[in-house]
Write a structure and sequence with these properties.
- One of its GO terms (molecular function) is D-ribulose-phosphate 3-epimerase activity.
- The structure is a single chain.
- The chain has 229 residues and is an alpha/beta fold.
- It is built from eight helices and eight strands.
- The chain has an eight-stranded parallel sheet.
- The radius of gyration is 16 Å and the shape is globular.
Length: 229
């Protein structure tokens, strides 16, 4: 994956039709999704339970773009290899998920995958300052993780902007997840984000039989984000 800071839209399939993931993934890609975002939750680190490695492996044949796997689990280290083998292109772990995030990032990179680190809304940037050189991406949560459809936390905008300054010219993506829609997209893009995760805002109103609605939603988010830069 060649690095650049163009806006990428990464629909979260947490908002897709759970009975039809294969066709849902193919539909969002055909309608302009740049990445496919997989939210993995364990019912412990966050109050919800979603996709184990077998599910991610089942999604893989349908993903032709880039499979972005966000691990909201603790402990995280014992499962890195399984999600890598399932076909993840990027594996993102939470800095709050264990005592040794440096080791976690090393373990992800050792699998040959891109490595990301995520921060919950209450976690300061200082927690990752000495981890950036191991990161391909930093994910700023703009909601408390665990559920889709939550309202955007505007207090995270300053964190995104400060992170952009910390990164400097290093080839590190800034991803934002939570409450992203055409109204918030220009704000996060202006602050420095380049990968925008959106679930409800992409899938609302559409279906595999009406995928053009997904396309319109993706374009609306992308155009709003690009207009904000």
């Amino acid at each position: 994956m060649t690095f650049d800071r163009k806006i990428r839209i990464a629909p979260s399939i947490l908002s897709a039709d759970f009975a039809d993931f294969g066709r849902e993934i193919r539909a969002i890609e055909a309608e302009g999704a740049d990445w496919v975002h997989i939210d993995v939750m364990d019912g412990h680190f966050v109050p919800n339970l979603t996709f184990g490695p077998p599910a991610v492996k089942a999604f893989r044949p349908h993903v032709t773009t880039f499979m972005d796997v966000h691990l909201m689990i603790a402990p995280v280290d014992p499962y890195i290899e399984a999600y890598a083998e399932a076909g993840a292109d990027m594996i993102t772990a939470h800095v709050e998920a264990g005592p040794h995030p440096h080791r976690t990032l090393q373990a992800i990179r050792a699998t040959g995958k891109k490595a990301g680190i995520s921060l919950n809304p209450g976690t300061p940037l200082e927690a990752i300052e000495y981890l950036l050189d191991l990161c391909d991406m930093v994910l700023i949560m703009t909601v408390n993780p665990g559920f889709g459809g939550q309202k955007f936390i505007h207090g995270q905008i300053d964190k995104i902007a400060r992170l952009r300054g910390m990164i400097g010219d290093r080839p590190i993506h800034i991803q934002v997840d939570g409450g992203v829609d055409p109204k918030t997209a220009p704000v996060v893009a202006r602050a420095g984000a380049d990968v925008l995760v959106a679930g409800s805002a992409v899938f609302k109103g559409g279906s595999v039989s009406q995928p053009e609605i997904y396309g319109a939603n993706i374009r609306a988010i992308r155009e709003a984000a690009e207009a904000g830069i």
